[in-house]
Amino acid sequence: MNPELGNFALALACCMAAGQAILPLIGANRRDARLMALAPALAVGQMIALITSFACLIHAAITNDFSVQNVAANSAVSKPLLYKITGVWGNHEGSVLLWAMILSICGGAVALFGRNLPSALQARVIAVLGGVAAGFELFCLTTSNPFARVWPAPLDGQGMNPLLQDPGLAFHPPILYTGYVGFAVPFAFAIAALIEGRVDAAWGRWVRPWAVAAWCFLTCGIAMGSWWSYYVLGWGGYWFWDPVENASLIPWLTGTALVHSAIVVEKREALKIWTVLLAIGTFSFSLSGTFLVRSGILNSVHAFANDPARGVFILGLLALVIGGSLLLFAIRAPQLTTGGLFSPVSREGLLVLNNILLCSICAVVLTGTMYPPFMSLLFGKTISVGKPFFDATTIPLAIPLMVFMGFGPMVPWKRAQMWPVLRRLWWAACVALVALVVATFRMRDILPVLATATAVWVICSSIADIAERLRLFRQPLGQSWQRARSLPRAVFGAALAHAGVGIVVLGIAGMSQAAHRIVEVHVGESEMLAGDSWTLTDVHPAEGPNYSALVATIEVRHNGRLVTTLHPSKRTFASQHQTTTEVAIHTNLMADIYGVLGDKHGDDANPTYVLRLHYNPLAPWMWLGGLIMAFGGALSLSDRRVRVGAPRRAKTVDVVVVQ
């Protein structure tokens, strides 16, 4: 599996993607069954070619083929095997190839699992995916070729950024990219619907599983990225409102709105135009995030490229994909029928309110992220929009969103009376009120207090929804158990996802009460933090596979009882001439005890060491809640009625076979 084979497979995939983008569209327009039948075959062929190409790049990294420029720049002989593999996508060229491969897998999945789709719709969806894939593969071949050779080949590589040499990198980027790219499928369905001029309940049912799957991956990817920054960067925080972090949050917000609006299309055939626009917007934001990272506009530990040619190419691709789709939407959307009517006080009404608040938060985050680079571009002024702005603008929108989230699953469709809903949720409201009172006495600021109360409200209302469906405590437990066995898994999945949101918010509220100190101590000295005694007992050198380290031992005691022993370290990577911190964390799931070793001062006879000490209450709940949210979405997808139970369209279009 040499690099030439990988480069050939990439070029072959690009040619197949171009054919996939053109021929099925012609076939769907002419009702030519033979041309439409090419769509699944080309999609699967492109997928196989790109998997082969990616495997060749991994093989080059594992075998230390430093004649490949990408391997020479991002690997080294001494680098552990795991990081040789993960380093393939820890750089610009490899990450773009990974993006293209995941996109091809999405197209292959539609080809293999979309056999119940009308042939014309499937052909159009696969053709749109092929057009986007062709653009990224052409980008790989022209400006970001991961198989470019270097001569003479160096004896050893430069290695990768030490910050990225972490097991989290093995999972975070592929999962996050799958979420980004997964929204290409709802986007393709939206474009196909605009071309066809038809959106109905069946379309909503076909779109929703793909949107939920992408949302699950993106949720999990964001949670893992936040966790990675928490334990790798060593600053004690979990979310810095970094522009690239925001670039992943923005499509998550619109993707969440898309998942909920697709339900309205499926159940009531309403919000059709809005749902199509959300599908276009969510994938457009995913592509825009790619442009921001790879163009060098945003400075971040995540940013890979500063090559203007790459930025111009991606900007052109964005203009073609986003501009073309919005132009098509402007032309064709007025022809779509509006669908069912509903009262403002109904589940549809609450879902519309959910969409408005989610998109409002998205608009705030987008404005705060893009305002500094636009000010720099237009007026040459350097400004910073940071955590205070985002906290002050997003939290007031998130709190009412969570309040209405608790009501949503309990409210009937079309028209509802609120009093019966309130009667079912009285105990959840009482628990939330108790949480509000307790938080008022234990927390310093009003926003964490409100966040805690609304988080408890969302969790309890999710439990109340399931209890109401099972008629718990209103009939014998045996009958409730039978109802639980017959209840769709999608119901449990939705309740879990909502409860996961509440758990995440509880973690964020808890972290607002975190305590930390930066101290300089001798070996043997102690400091107090959060009622615990932190003692630096030892500092000693150690050797790793491709680094040297200075390891500290910190004993944490509470009233004389040993709670834990932390071993934070500083690692020096000789090949990159870079030093990183290795955080030590002890958790009991209710709080994290978090220690970081800083610089050494003084002479060797009487040195002092800087320590960063943190006590972070409820910190693990943020990532636990994110995983629960993703698991809830996956549980919904495991329900076959969600995946393949699409209603049949009232009328199908006959296909003319051209002889």
Automatic annotation (TrEMBL):
Membrane-spanning intervals of the chain: 6-26, 38-62, 96-113, 125-144, 175-195, 207-229, 249-266, 273-292, 312-331, 352-374, 394-413, 425-443, 449-467, 487-509, 618-638
One Pfam short name: CcmF_C
UniProt KW Transmembrane helix keyword: yes
Lyase found in the keyword field: yes
Membrane topology: Multi-pass membrane protein
Compartments, record wording: Cell inner membrane
PANTHER family named in the record: CYTOCHROME C ASSEMBLY PROTEIN-RELATED, CYTOCHROME C-TYPE BIOGENESIS PROTEIN CCMF
This protein's name: Heme lyase CcmF/NrfE family subunit
Taxonomic classification: Bacteria, Pseudomonadati, Pseudomonadota, Alphaproteobacteria, Acetobacterales
